[in-house]
Amino acid sequence: MEAAHLINFRLLVWGIVIIPALSQGGLKTGFYSSSCPKAESIVRSTVEAHFNKNPTVAAGLLRLHFHDCFVQGCDGSILIAGASAEKTARPNSGLRGFEVVEDAKSQLESMCPGVVSCADILALAARDAVDLSGGPSWGVPTGRRDGRISSSAEASSLPSPLDPVPTQRQKFASKGLDDHDLVTLVGAHTIGQTDCLFFRYRLYNFTSTGNPDPSINQVFLAQLQSTCPKDGDGTKRVALDKDSQLKFDTSFFKNVRDGNGILESDQRLWGDPSTHRIVENYAGSIRGLLGLRFDFEFPKAMIKMSRIEVKTGTQGEIRKICSKFN
């Protein structure tokens, strides 16, 4: 095999996407193999311990990494506490999993002080969360440094559940992600929940018409209206994937195809010609075969996202505590 082909080598074996340990924009798999050899296993065991107590934490960790990367790049800025910090912005309300990151960080600081960044812990924890939920695993390129800025004012770049596809496309494109990445990453909604508050308008007064969103499957609409009454408090939690909310699989795409998407931004992916084709491919009709394809494409999209505007080398810092700058 030629060297050029070796560099682009991608292999799916037993649910693990193998990425060569090459430097990619200052990141490489196995970055801590000498400086903190047990770093990845410590993160894994910490995520697993929390997951075993509450499997819904997996979706929380995945969302935490995503929200981190879309503001200031993947630099742990979402973890900073403070009145005007990034995590206080409205799009970040309901984020969870912070305690898992802090737990892993405290163990790593005991073993390898000042070595493993909070940004890398997030990237590793997101991978482990997917794997524990029955999804694929992959080699995570590491070597990120932690950022020194965390501002709620910058969170407007985050995708919103209200966004039409052109807005979603623009927000993803601004981070170097294309339509294929967009649909693939939104597939993370195969696990996780949302509040009635974020989609109830679709059930009763969509676009101020006084009627429900016509794209919602009628049988599903009745179920959602029962779960989320018009005058309820809006805090009831609803699975983003009605069929298997704790299993990382392709049923989310089947739901979008069938008009059973919860968030407007998810359901709209079926109505745009470009994103429609990608959803259709993942939803498929051959059980398992196309699920395998999603298991291959999702790690590639995650690795691409996890490189957004990373700080490496002497940039940023390695925080001692993830919630505050050194």
Automatic annotation (TrEMBL):
User: What is one Gene Ontology biological process annotated in the Swiss-Prot or TrEMBL record?
Assistant: hydrogen peroxide catabolic process
Q: What class of enzyme is it?
A: oxidoreductase
Pfam families, alphabetically? peroxidase
Which residues of this UniProt protein bind Ca(2+) 1?
A: D68, V71, G73, D75, S77, E86
Q: Which cysteines are joined by disulfide bonds?
A: C36-C112, C69-C74, C118-C322, C196-C228
Q: Which residues form the Plant heme peroxidase family profile domain?
A: 26-326
Cofactor annotation? Ca(2+); heme b
Residues under site feature: Transition state stabilizer: R63
Task: Reply yes or no: does the keyword Plastid apply.
Answer: no
The answer to whether keyword Signal applies is yes
Which catalysed reactions does the entry list for this protein?
2 a phenolic donor + H2O2 = 2 a phenolic radical donor + 2 H2O
Q: Where is this region: Disordered?
A: 135-169
The protein's job, in short, is: Removal of H(2)O(2), oxidation of toxic reductants, biosynthesis and degradation of lignin, suberization, auxin catabolism, response to environmental stresses such as wounding, pathogen attack and oxidative stress.
Q: Which family does it belong to?
A: Belongs to the peroxidase family. Classical plant (class III) peroxidase subfamily.
The identity of this protein, by name, is Peroxidase
- Taxonomic source organism: Fraxinus pennsylvanica
Organism lineage: Eukaryota, Viridiplantae, Streptophyta, Embryophyta, Tracheophyta
